[in-house]
Design a protein that fits this description.
The protein has ten helices and 16 strands. Strands 2, 3, 4, 5, 6, 7, 9, 10, 11, 12, 13 and 16 form a twelve-stranded mixed β-sheet that branches. Strands 1-8 form a two-stranded parallel sheet. It is an alpha+beta fold. It has two domains: 2-69, no CATH class; 80-323, Alpha carbonic anhydrase (Carbonic Anhydrase II). Strand 6 (145-148) and strand 7 form a beta hairpin.
Amino acid sequence: MAANILNCSKLASINPINLGLIEKVPGFVELLGVHIFGHGYRRSKFLVMPQRGFKWMQYCVRAFHYANSEDFGYDGVIGPVHWGERYQECRGKHQSPIDINVLRVKQVALPDITFIGFDDSIDDVHVTNNGHTVLIEVENEPHPRVSGGPLDGDYIFSQMHFHWGDNDTFGSEDKINHRSFPMELHMVFFKEEYKTPNDAVRHSDGLAVLAFFYELDRHQHPAYDDITSALSNVTEPHTSVVMNHPFSFLNILPYDLNRYFTYRGSLTTPPCSEVVIWLDFEQPVRLAHDQIEVFRELRSATGKIRHNFRPIQPIGDRVVFYNIDNKYFSYNEVDDPNEDIPKRKKGHNNSYGLVCSVYTVLSLIIINVSLL
């Protein structure tokens, strides 16, 4: 089998247009066979049994495309440093992930996010090891959706996946004040008006990603039991399983969904398309070490996926916004026509005013105590 794969690798030098001829013109097999196996191919059994030779060549095409699906990774010559050699947009100026400096964010009070279908019990949930991460997808309609916040329109759920590190000290993609978390969840949504995820990635506002960080807890999170159980059945790459029980999005998320950072960025895997509105929620999800360790047992074509996060990218000229909980605080924002965050809600007080208010209250308390 190893020799076959080695021979099939020569298909990489063939024009993809010619590959299509294999499916349409069986007589093309002989010419292609000479290219792959050398002139000794003419004396092989494939000329005696042309149909078998045709099937063999079809296998080679499938093997080539399978190998081509593993065209990026996180180490060596297919690691993030080399992604830009094949995917030009990976060298773009608005790439993700980024390191968010909370002292440089711009505080805003955006409209509330509407989460539709997040508390539904969803059947037929598929868990897949795609060789890079684990994907969770739903088949049943309608899919969960989100709107509000920095989003202009409705965004429909496409899939969710995870990023993790070799140990519990790092693994998230975005960082907060240089802090890395052991794992990060990405819930990917596409804009409804673009109909499909494939069409959405052609538009600058095509995707929204809700990102959630994880941190360690001494206790296990019961809502993750079904996920970790499913992972034990998809340790090998390109395997899939259906969850045994109904699944609710809301159960696996943190309680506070009001405070988050948002910015314009990209996919964190090739082709690195700069079409993503990111929402990084501030409150982490707490998992036990054993629950995170299960993810590190998943395998790719080259071994265990011990880490699958992209290094930090330059923030460049971008502004990161921080949405405060507008049920408690409200900040006055000065509109900047060059900043593209829609539907900003006006408030009445800025952060300086808040500090002054707290100072005033404390002063009154001190005065009252002194008069007693």
